[in-house]
Structure prediction request, 717 residues.
Amino acid sequence: MDDLDLHRIDQIKAALKDKKLVIVTGSGVTLNATATLSGDALDELSWTGLINHGLDFLVKSGKVEADDDDLRNARKKLKDPKPSSKQLLRAAGRLKELLEDTDQLSNWLDYRFGKLSKQVRHPGILNVLKSFHENGTQLLTTNYDDLLEEGYCKLTRIGRMDHQQLRKFQSGNLRGVVHLHGSFHDPNDVILDATDYYKIASSNDIQELLRSIWNTHTILFVGCGSGLEDPNFGALLDWAKEDQKNIADRHFLLVSTEDRFDFPRLMRLEFGTSYADLVPFLQRLLDDPRRPAAGPASDCLNSIGFPDINARRLNIADAHPDTCDWLFQTAEFIEWRDRTDLPNHNGVLWIKGKPGVGKSTLMKHALDHLENIFADHSIISYFFNARGGILEKSPLGMLRSIVYQLVNKDAVLYEHFLSMFREKKRLQRQEVPEWQESELKDFIMSEIRQWKRKPLVLLLDALDECNEPNVREVVRFLEDLSIYAVRAGGTLRTCLSSRHYPHVSIKKSLEFTVERIRDHDKDIARYTQERLIQMYDGVDREDIHNVTKEIRERANGIFLWVVLVVSLLNIAYDKGRVEAMHKTLEEVPNDLEELFNTILSKGDEHKDETTLMLQWVLFSRRPLGPEELFFAVTNWIEPKVSSEVIHRRITESSRGLIEVRKGYASVQFIHLSVKDFLLRNRRLLTLDPTLGPEPISASHGRLWACCWACIERVNTG
Prediction:
């Protein structure tokens, strides 16, 4: 970093100290916060990707035909690898017209941005922006999402059309985030195309605000580099270039060393080689003594984080609309929430249920609810995943995740852990030392024993997805935590979920069983009826009611059974109308494992490929990528094949029992019970009698033969 860069940093720090700093965030912030754990940005959040997403939404929702002329024209403008601003604006204009003509603008915006906060995998950028806000910085954004407001940071959202709020913001009497291009919460205010931009250009309130901050403040543009792809941003700077010629250059554009983004009137300031360097750079600007932002800080977090740390939560199905809310009305949940009769349960709530009953979806729904009602709490969650990598299903992974979340939410805890990290690094003489379970347990326990900070909620799903000794070890640790928290006078609520087996207990806790709850049965009926009505438009409602009633009675509370049966009914209806649907329902067994058996035994077409695909997912030492699985079971020679073809082949060949994980390049069984089913009662031998008396050993031999054949193909090719 040269003297000029250091001078610019000093300018920004001076503006921050004088409460004269304004940060404008662009889509790079959202792309960074929601990137996959391997670092890949969500394409649909870039400007081009967002327009394509809107066009796809219109087709998938049945509002516009795929061959519609306007839609095709819009797509044509987006096919250019580097579309111009004019092309993007025209495509956005087409999209806006189609959305408004079909009355879908609000629905699309909510669909794309409404649950974006659940996709935040890298909260560091949001946390540091919130810290700037707390230190007097004004925030503006060109983004439509609410991650800086109710979605994550809980700051006040200020609409671009709210005259009074904008005036208060400008005068310093209102703190919050101004949405220059509108928010998805206010669809009519969203700036989407060239016509919309005139709304900003002709808005006295916005123009006055922009002129004021340009003349009197220092502006730092964050996430507005090459990843922005927002033509409206360029128009904003054109305005500054023409109308503000006499103002000294004191506004900065943060860029990586690789970016060639450059604008007149903005001074480039490089934060590092990649987005991983952005948060530490911003933290240095804050000069926060509580948290060093240099290399050791990143190393410290990297030592406990891991790529799939949030993978399971992101892949759990959301609750169907108007379901699962019964949980919050149960006597057990209310007693746990309100901490009444605490000596009898120590703040522990344990939700139990059969495999496939829907516990994980219920826990994910509970987490969303808790984040809303306990905004002032530290909420820590971990979702065990027996189908994932080693850390996802181990106590070590759980402990690393808990500590990672704790130190990201509490600066004091971060300092404590950083000291521990430095000492460990000194002793082991490693850049990123390996942590032992005992060390992380001791750290958590020592903090809980003297817990006097904000209330803490700990939510852990699927304890049974550890092996049995590990389950008992985890439960013992959690029980100790609850006891020490009560003794310390701290507030700790712990919510657990598991199957009934292995049988593990805590001396003091609240418990209930999901499949015994009457409202859970009502959820099954609601889900079934709504899905059938959507699929069978025109079918007699009484007929649907009877089918729904039968499914509800036969489900025994197992939501996974219901989802699979409804899927089979959909297929039957597509092939043979109502009669085929009734015939399928008669043939479907009540037991979940027998249902798996029925699904796999229907039709012999491609049965060898089905068996081989199941074997690969069942016995691979690590989760396979979809491409790896595809080429392992097919004789595909061409090097290029679309992801759509691969995903469809996996779904069809596995009979719907294998899925591609959302946001992660790996495949897994749709539920742990599929793995249990295949490993029990010599099911593999039923699928393929040639496996002989030792089907598991024979399966490994078959996979070895596949690998060897692949090596020979490469060597001879």
About this structure: Residues 607-716 form one domain. The chain has a mean pLDDT of 85. The CA atoms of residues 167 and 173 lie 8 Å apart. The first strand starts at residue 21 and ends at 25.
